[in-house]
Design a protein that fits this description.
mainly alpha; 11 helices; about 70% helix
């Protein structure tokens, strides 16, 4: 998508990059912030308790985003044994990233409604495109990261709720090892044309429509 925009409209390409960087940065920063608040300062010591995108940027993950529209940031390190509650605080740390993406999408939708509802800007304005991108990208990150497969946040929530490693450490280890391979396979199949993640499109579009309210007909 980036290179298509780069040649057709460079300003839209820049808006797309800024939207991606902001979504990834706020996601990872939120993990670090909640872990820090709950007693684990590992991320802070690693310089990850910051909104500087360069601190969270994974070069290959970002290039992947530019090339194929799928990528990743550097995972925030944390030590669950430093948390005040080693089991349930892990849930809040894992949820922090997706929750921040929802809040950013909701805030952008509110601004978009205010601007378009009051007819302060035209629907073809670059700011409208940027805010809409922020909404879609953050909702996509939100729902994708809730898939219960490692290394996604959903797997960490799953392990914490069911206390997998305490009750059955072998099962937990197997999920970690084979789950990552399964996720890679699913991503590969989606690029091969198999609509594996069809439910993500459904969730993103319906949630975006809900957030946009009366102006959703301008986009859907």
């Amino acid at each position: 998508m980036f290179f298509q925009l780069l040649f057709s409209d460079p300003f839209l390409a820049v808006a797309w990059v800024v939207a991606v960087l902001s979504a990834l940065t706020i996601h990872e920063f939120s993990h670090a912030m909640v872990a820090n608040l709950r007693g684990d300062h590992t991320a802070e010591a690693a310089g990850r308790l910051t909104l500087n995108p360069l601190s969270h940027l994974d070069l290959f993950g970002f290039i992947s985003f530019l090339l194929i529209g799928y990528g990743w940031a550097k995972p925030v390190p944390f030590n669950p044994y430093n948390l005040k509650n080693t089991r349930w605080d892990g849930v809040w740390v894992a949820l922090a990233g997706p929750a921040s993406n929802f809040l950013l999408a909701a805030f952008s939708a509110f601004i978009l409604q205010a601007l378009l509802g009051a007819e302060l800007i035209a629907v073809n304005n670059l700011l409208v495109f940027f805010l809409y991108l922020v909404i879609i990208l953050n909702l996509g990150l939100l729902f994708f990261n809730l898939i219960p497969l490692p290394p996604l946040d959903g797997s960490k929530i799953w392990h914490a709720i069911f206390d997998t490693f305490l009750h059955n450490p072998q099962l937990g280890q197997m999920i970690e090892q084979r789950g990552q391979l399964l996720l890679m396979l699913l991503i590969f199949l989606s690029f091969a044309g198999v609509n594996i993640f069809f439910f993500l499109d459904f969730l993103v579009n319906h949630t975006a429509g809900f957030l946009l309210g009366p102006i959703q007909t301008m986009f859907f």
